[in-house]
Structure formats: structure tokens, C-alpha cells
Amino acid sequence: MTDILIRTEGKAGRITLNRPKALNALSYAMCLAIEEALDRWAKDDSVALVVLDAEGDRAFCAGGDIQEMYDTGTAGDYDYGRRFWRDEYRMNAKIAEYPKPIVSFLHGFTMGGGVGLGGHCSHRIVCESTQIAMPECSIGFVPDVGGSYILAKAPGRLGEYLGLTATRMGPGDAIHAGFADAYVPEAEWDGLKSDLCSTGDVAAIPQHPAPDSPLADQQAEIDRLMGTEDLQGMLNQLRGDDSEFAAKTLSKLERIAPLSLAVTIEMLHRLRGPSLNIRKALELEYRVSHRVMEHGDFLEGIRAAIIDKDRTPKWRHTLDKVPAVDVSFMLRPLGKEALQFEREDTGMNIGFIGLGNMGAPMAANLAKAGHTVVGFDVAGTAAEGCAQATSAVEAATNADVVITMLPNGNILRSVADEIVPAMKSGAVLLDCSTVDVESARAVAEQAQSAGLGALDAPVSGGIGGAAGGTLTFMVGGSGDAFDIAKPLFDIMGQKAVHCGPAGNGQAAKICNNMILGVTMIATCEAFALADKLGLDRQAMFDVVSTSSGYSWTMNAYCPAPGVGPQSPADNGYKPGFAADLMLKDLRLAQQAAESADADTPMGAAAMALYQTFVENEDGAGQDFSAMLPRFETRGRD
């Protein structure tokens, strides 16, 4: 199941958040997918408007998915969060400035990132269950995603009250405060959405009276108590008032990050006025976002509220001692790091499925080169610099290229069944797994039938090559798809050979590795024989490496410790290329040989030897060159 459903219905583009168990929390990948859809529909004359809603009964969107921000931030990596915020804020501005109507249906919890998504639309609809809030200060942040723009336009000093206290607004309050436009009972929503899709006309939205607003009744009291120039003045005002409202408000503020309170007040004061627009608000918010993990209370707030859930945050400041210089620092202009609203299309959007020992460093190298990479792995592993999707479909939805690095052909086929329908037309499915030729060709045919490019591109070079970007790719598929992927091959490897039609990459890989397996066995046998003949290993290497016995297994990957260039043999045979993987590749070679009616007795013998070594001896988990100590201890049968 995908986390976001993007499609067209009649005259409408439709975006439906589909993470109801997570209260439709907004992930980085979802932000990118929404922006891509909006960009596409802005130029599509058949789309008259956009309908934005969410699955489930409890929430439109309860906020952003901030787990990855916390994980990267606590590890000292602040760039992931900054990139997320930059891209999300750009999307928020795009929604506010969109050239066509966007109708959002804001049911249940609509908070934080949900306000940034649904709160800037041209037509914002609420219902009986709506609960809207900006709770960022409570986790050591400030109202963002353009929330400060709405708060600054709210009547009187309602913006300060809502931004500082995280008070939840029902439908009447939301309309009064400027967070919504129309009230429509939820029972009428399905019919309204159908009308919007069929007519493409926002005139279909009914005009119901707005419910009562408790905040409107409290407006005068809010204006009186919250209308000060700074946090200390507000605290003094509240402490000097004997009303129940003042006491409750003060109690709320005492639990919230003091720096966040002070910065929020200053933000709203700076924003109010005739020059206010969404971009000005987002740019000011981003000054805080850029600094908040390193210099603010955001990480501590997340820890206390979401990670440890102890509800006892240790804020950097006390409520009455927030230096003005600290507030000023958080809002200082960023210079060349300032928020930009034009998308930097210098890289591709890449989905990477399979972030194991090989996939994770490959994905990280692509991200370092400036591409936007969204990764997914069933084990939950991540890659440096990459956004983390919650499903394979989510990773694939907005991608120009989807790269897979999977264990076998059956899993590849299963993943292809999921992601091919979700991939956008013209995208390329680039499989870097080592699988059987039949599976590679079947998946390529499936992708091509769906209007996608398809490449099978297994790799050679092992974990070291993946980390160092020195892999060799053996590529099958169309020339057009190869040309699209070529810049990515140049980042992940040192060589990419186009071997012909689909499946030929796998054919090249298994033929290459059959030679590798056979020659490694011969090299190990020769060293073991040299030992028993009394020939020094170094002398043998010096002769063979410059004579007719020259081979890659001798010269570049010598299985004898202390001889030749550094290799896994010098590290206790810790795998560079595991014997288990060699057995897998030799089995694929024999499977292909059987289907092609090819006689490969040496390949069959190598497979049998590695099978015995891995399954019946101690070869599992060792490098494939660990055949040498095996032969050292054996006599002639």
C-alpha cells in the first residue's frame, strides 16, 4: 500500500494521504511526490483544480514525520533536516501561490506539517471533527511550514496565543482565526468531492453557516494579555492578572521551550504589516529551521515528547532568562544559505530499494553527488544523505530512476509487481541485483509494457567497490535507458558496459563470475600444491603473476596472506566477496547453462566445490578466497 495516492479523476487532480495508522504524518518522500504532481498539473489543461484529502477517521495530517530528523540530528548530521525543510517550505509556497484552485478537506487532527499542506490552499474545508493546531513550540521549535504567515494575519493577538500555547481549534475557531474558509458537514464530503471532480468548479462548495467560535468570544481578553512586545512583558502581564484565563495560559507557557516562545513572538512582530507574504514568512522560519537542531531545543523537545516520552525536557533557558542576543541569533539572515524558492534541478529524483551492504553505500554516493535519493529497505536500514521511505512504493512514486539491489529473482519479481504501477511514465527501472536471466527479462518486459525504461545492471567490485564508487556494471536493456542511467553509473562505478538487450547484463555477470569461481579454485589449488612441493609462496607469486598463469585472482585478489596486493586474505578472510555469494552466482550460471543447453563441466565442478565449502564445511560467512586454507589441510582423495 502506498503512503500517498496521486491520480486524476475527471477534471481534478487528486492527492490523498494514505498513512492513517501514522495519522497521515508527512514524510520527505511524500513532500517530493506532492510537489511533482502539482508541477505536472499546473501545465495540464485537462486539470481544472486539485482535491487534497486523507484516508482514515482520525487525522488529515498530524504533522511531519520527524523521526529521521531526530536520528540524523543526534548523530551530528544537520543537513538532512535542512534539506527536508527547504523542500517542504518550497512546496508550501507552491501551494499558496498555485495558479489553480486547491480544495483541502481538513478532518480530525491537522497540525504542523498538515497545516503547511492543507492550510495554504485556496479553499480550505473543515467539519465537525476538525482539530487544527500549531504545536511546534512545545517540542522546542517555532510555528513553521508557513504557519507564521497565518498566525501573523489572525485577528488581534490571536496569532501569539495560538502559536505559543498550541491551543487546538475546532471548525468555528479555525474559520475565525483564518486557518479555514468553509464549514461542510463530513456527511456531505463524498458528494462534494464527486461534484468537484466532475465539474472542475469550486462553485460546488456549499455555503453553510460557520459554527460558533469560543476564541472569538475570548478575543478581547487575548488581545489584552498577549499584546506585549516580548516574552518577559507577556509573562509579567499574565502574572499580574487574576483571571482564570491568564492562569491557564501561564500554566501552558511554563511547560514550553522558553527560546521557542521568545523567537515566535519576535517572528510574528516582524511579519505583521502590508509587506507580509508567504515567502517572507517561510524565509524567516527557515532561518530558525537551519539553526534549531544545533543551537535550539528541537532535538531535546523531540526526545522528551516522542522518543523517551518522559515529558521532562531540559530546555537551554529558563522562562525569565532568554537573552535577546539568542533570539536575534536564531533569526539572523543566512546569506548564501537562505531559503530559495526555485527548485534546483541539478540532479535526479532516485528511489533506491535495497539498502544492504552494497545498496547503502551506492545510494549514499548518489546523494553526495547532489541527487535526491529516497531509500527503502525491509530491514529498516538507511543510507547517509538519503530520505527514508516507509515502503518500496513510496520510494518509487516520484522517481526518475528506481534502483533495486535485491537478493534474488523471486524478490525482484515481487518488488516489480509493487513498484511498476506506481512509477511515472518514462522513468527507468534499474536493477543492480544479481539474479537469473529469466527473471531479469521478465521484469524488463513488465516495465516496458508499463511505459518504463528497464535495465539489468549487476555489479562487480564488492563492498569496497560500492563504498569507493569503483564498481563495474554489466548492463542489459535499451540504449535510451542506458543513456539516462549513464551519469549514475559514473558516480557509483568506474566502468559500465552496455552488453545488449534485456537480460544480457545478468548473462555477462554470471559468465564472468563462473570464470572467477573456477580461477579462484585453480589459484588456491596451485598455492596448496606449491606449499607441498616446497615452493615459497612469494616466489610462486613472482613467477605466475608475470607469466602465462596471470589472472585477476592471482594478481589483484591473491588468496595467500602476505603475498601480492592487500586482499581479504590479509584480514582473516573477512568477506570482500563472500563464498555464499559466489555459490549463488555459480548456481545461476548452471541454471542458465541448463536452459541454454550449454556444456559447462568446470562451472559445474566449481559450483559443487563451493556448495560443499559453504554448506558442509566452514565457508559460510568467509571470503570466497578462503578456499586456500581448505586445500592446505587436504590430501589427495
TrEMBL record:
<comment type="similarity">
    <text>Belongs to the HIBADH-related family.</text>
</comment>
<dbReference type="InterPro" id="IPR006115">
    <property type="entry name" value="6PGDH_NADP-bd"/>
</dbReference>
<dbReference type="InterPro" id="IPR036291">
    <property type="entry name" value="NAD(P)-bd_dom_sf"/>
</dbReference>
<dbReference type="Pfam" id="PF14833">
    <property type="entry name" value="NAD_binding_11"/>
</dbReference>
<feature type="domain" description="Enoyl-CoA hydratase/isomerase">
    <location>
        <begin position="13"/>
        <end position="327"/>
    </location>
</feature>
<dbReference type="GO" id="GO:0008442">
    <property type="term" value="F:3-hydroxyisobutyrate dehydrogenase activity"/>
</dbReference>
<dbReference type="InterPro" id="IPR045004">
    <property type="entry name" value="ECH_dom"/>
</dbReference>
<dbReference type="Pfam" id="PF16113">
    <property type="entry name" value="ECH_2"/>
</dbReference>
<feature type="domain" description="3-hydroxyisobutyrate dehydrogenase-like NAD-binding">
    <location>
        <begin position="503"/>
        <end position="628"/>
    </location>
</feature>
<dbReference type="InterPro" id="IPR011548">
    <property type="entry name" value="HIBADH"/>
</dbReference>
<feature type="domain" description="6-phosphogluconate dehydrogenase NADP-binding">
    <location>
        <begin position="349"/>
        <end position="500"/>
    </location>
</feature>
<dbReference type="InterPro" id="IPR029154">
    <property type="entry name" value="HIBADH-like_NADP-bd"/>
</dbReference>
<dbReference type="InterPro" id="IPR029045">
    <property type="entry name" value="ClpP/crotonase-like_dom_sf"/>
</dbReference>
<dbReference type="Pfam" id="PF03446">
    <property type="entry name" value="NAD_binding_2"/>
</dbReference>
<keyword id="KW-0520">NAD</keyword>
<dbReference type="InterPro" id="IPR002204">
    <property type="entry name" value="3-OH-isobutyrate_DH-rel_CS"/>
</dbReference>
<dbReference type="InterPro" id="IPR008927">
    <property type="entry name" value="6-PGluconate_DH-like_C_sf"/>
</dbReference>
<keyword id="KW-0101">Branched-chain amino acid catabolism</keyword>
<protein>
    <recommendedName>
        <fullName>3-hydroxyisobutyrate dehydrogenase</fullName>
        <ecNumber>1.1.1.31</ecNumber>
    </recommendedName>
</protein>
<comment type="pathway">
    <text>Amino-acid degradation; L-valine degradation.</text>
</comment>
<dbReference type="InterPro" id="IPR013328">
    <property type="entry name" value="6PGD_dom2"/>
</dbReference>
<keyword id="KW-0560">Oxidoreductase</keyword>
